[in-house]
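ok trying this again, last paste got cut off
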Amino acid sequence: MNEKIKKLFNGGVGQLAIPLIAIALLVIFNLFRDPGFFSIGIMHNNDGNVVLAGNLISIINGASELAILAIGMTLVTAACGGQDISVGAAAAIAGSVFVKVLKSAASINGGTVILAILCSCIVAMLFSTFNGVLVAVFKIQPMIATLILYTCGRSIAYWINGGATPTVSSPIINAIGSFIPGIPIPTPVLIVVLMTVLFKLLFRFTSLELFTQSVGINGSAARLNGINTTFIKLLSFILLGVCVAVAGSIGVSRLGLINHETLLIDIEMDTILAVAIGGNNLGGGRFKISGSIIGAYVIQMLTITLYAMKVSSTDVKAYKAIVIILLVVIGSPVVKEKFGLLMSRLRKSKEQAAAKGAGEA
């Protein structure tokens, strides 16, 4: 049993141990607090469509943008050993471009929406490439390099639409932000599934996962083995740009407008925390996308739980900080090492006791 516990924390499933345990604890706590907390109901929304509703749906739906950003942040963290703190500001820029293209069209149809998403992706990728160049070429620490866009990004988003907060009204936009008629599951949840599958396929049919981990673990060794470390780091930022554009487009579609000041505000820290809770090494190297996605749902479940307990919005961040600090500390390398040593000592004591008993017999 001790070997199984040790394996759980140190390898294989180990990287997912902390987020899975956190999810389990939150589920148990909520079931004791309110047995009906996770009940799912069926209702009609404002458009008359049959949809699923309930706290569980709110959790998986509300965490969609965070989960998508966590996917891209995981790659940047693994390859560069640092985090991009400008994802919220970059999402505001991408959302502004998304709205700008839609408002420039004569009518909003499927082709216009696809064009708007592509334009927002291109712009977000360009800004992410700028961050990537600072990190990969000029060797600037990621958090410092991305501080530039973090500072000015929302101002750029403000300029794109001339300081206005234009609205976009269309059944297609409404479907992206809420529900597709005839499908009771929120569209953002389906987009998270799609993005996860696309990245899994990317890792399955390319060597990107291996190269990213190699660069993050030891860039010099990876370079000597023929891996272009600069390209891998740039690529991680570019892929994060795609995630930023998708998250920004979802955020705009939920509201039906662009507000550069509030769109995905403060999501940067939650994204980094989702990566950390997911068991990924914030110093780079080994990573697991699924862990970061679960980490995003941990954060959202914690938020919904606190609101259900009537905690004021001003106090939610403080309570979240306390719980998240505990989770991060428990999952830290130091604690894992101490836990491994404790398990080894217990195992040796058990073996010695068994040998002593056999000798006496």
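PB: full thing came through this time. The radius of gyration is 23 Å.
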